[in-house]
Amino acid sequence: MGVKIAMDCLSLRSALFVLAFLFVFAGSVSAQDSAATLDSVLQRLERLEQDNQTLREKVAAFEDASLATDVEPSLPQSKKRAAVASQSMNSGNRKAGIYQPVEPRTLFASGTSEPLLTENDVRSIVTETVSQQTTITEPHDTVCPEDSMQDKKLTDLDRALKALQDKANKKTYPSITVNGVFQADAGWIHQDNVSQEQYGDIRDGSDFRRARLSARGSVTELTNYFFQMDFGFFGRPTFTDVWLEQTKVPLFGNVRIGQWKQPFGLETVSSFRYTTFMERSVLFQPFTPFRHIGIGFYDHSDDLSMTWAASVFRTGQDQFGATLSDDGGYGTSERLTWVPSWECNGKNYLHLGVGHFFNSPPNDTINFRTIPEFYVGANAPGAVGTSGQAVPGGADGTPFFVATGPLDVSYYNVLGSEFLWVDGPLSIQSEAMVNLVSQSAGGTAALPGAYAQAGYFLTGEHRPYDRKTGTIDRVIPKSNLTFAGNECNPGVGAWEVAGRWSYLNLNDSMIAGGTIVDYTAGLNWYWNPYTKMVFNYVHAISDAPGGPTATAHTDMFGVRAQIDF
């Protein structure tokens, strides 16, 4: 029995090899680590084999010393096994008994006798060997060639990535960025009898209110440019912003030459892409300079709490920026803004501003007029050639509701104030202006106007603000409009409700242009930062000069789809 426990070396080695192999792979050791581990286990098995041989020799010596002696019951268990093994070897071939193969299970147990090598012993051997293989190498250990090669590849990859980033961040000149925007509008108009008598039949319709392409960039680090054409406005295609500018100019900051929106009024200098309603207020057309060819400068304070801008320009130009006059035709504008409160990274802030616009109109003639806060129109048929196809002629559409007609004016000055308060999703915006008109016939007329509006984001967004330019910025929805994703929870975009009251009075002194009050309700649905749907309802109450003594009421409902990129 003891001879079987002390099995022959080949069977022991084979069994241990199989067990070590299984334990190593059960421990999820890599292919390279497994090979090294097995080599180590085999080395230890060789030592065990030598120990076994020594044990057998001792057993044989013990047997020779007590061959005729019976086994004493009081002997320790280990000596009993040795005595039994000695008697067994005497009865037959000793070496044949030692190398007699046994079943693998007898390696661990045989009846009630203790195993020569338990399963825990094998686990300990494998665990110790694996631990030695995974231990951090000492300074004198050699580095695996495969690890060295991998480290080299990672280093090369880091260098290539850094070179790519440096190339991407390095600016090359001239640079160019192409942008575009379009607004597709549709409108329905209802007039009472007085409105129809005063303005005629204002028809429903649809059009592209704006369709623009632009190129923006730099030709050097300090010289920028912008070129934009509108394919949807009158005189298609039409120049809008076309300018160049030099930055970091001492005393002036940034100097711009060309045609752009002159610095006057918050809703005027802010992009139409970010305004709350489909059209600017009734102050926009008669009281603001808007786009003209000129030269000006702008800058901001280091803490971004203030901005200032001023310009000198030609007035009265056509849709291509051109103007001709022998008398007058010059203007100036100045604007100063202040942000006394800026909190929560721009979610709460207060904007205040003042502005001045001086104009000596071309040939001392000016007509102050405005449409209501909605427009839809189309080109009427013009001349017809031999092809029989009509070319674009005059434009039909929403007419001016109040107008002074041509006035003999030497110059006029418009003073304006700006207010914008944002408290999270709530925004309140207002501007007030007064136009002091110096008439050639003598006397100064004061024409006032104002608007106030409020907006609220139902989905929790806020109205952003650009502190470097003192203008309204792009709305960023908390979630873009999606119909799938987010574990089947669709994004709803951003929803904003808004209302506005606006007022303009063109009656004073010798001027009789009429009055208009507009009430506008709006709903904006921002699908994402670059796409929005706009729904506006406008109720206009107007008293036009030379018309019926009664007040005209006109209802307008408009929708817009807008995308910019």
Care to describe what's here?
This protein is of the alpha+beta class. It folds into 2 domains: 2-138, no CATH class; 167-378 and 395-564, Porin (Beta Barrel). It is 23% helix and 41% strand. It has 10 helices and 23 strands. A 16-stranded antiparallel β-barrel has the order 1-2-3-4-5-6-7-8-9-15-16-17-20-21-22-23. Strands 11-14 form a two-stranded antiparallel ribbon. Strands 12-13 form a two-stranded antiparallel ribbon. A hairpin with a 5-residue loop joins strand 6 (291-300) and strand 7. It is elongated. The two termini are 90 Å apart. Residues 1-19, 21-31, 67-71 and 88-112 have low confidence and may be disordered.
How are the elements arranged and paired?
Elements: H1 2-5, H2 9-26, H3 31-65, H4 77-90, H5 94-98, H6 119-134, H7 145-169, E1 177-191, H8 193-199, E2 205-218, E3 223-230, E4 238-249, E5 253-261, H9 266-269, H10 284-287, E6 291-300, E7 306-314, E8 330-343, E9 348-360, E10 365-366, E11 369-370, E12 377-384, E13 390-397, E14 402-403, E15 407-423, E16 426-439, E17 444-457, E18 465-466, E19 471-472, E20 494-508, E21 511-528, E22 531-543, E23 552-564
Antiparallel strand pairs: 1-2, 1-23, 2-3, 3-4, 4-5, 5-6, 6-7, 7-8, 8-9, 9-15, 10-15, 11-14, 12-13, 15-16, 16-17, 17-20, 18-19, 20-21, 21-22, 22-23
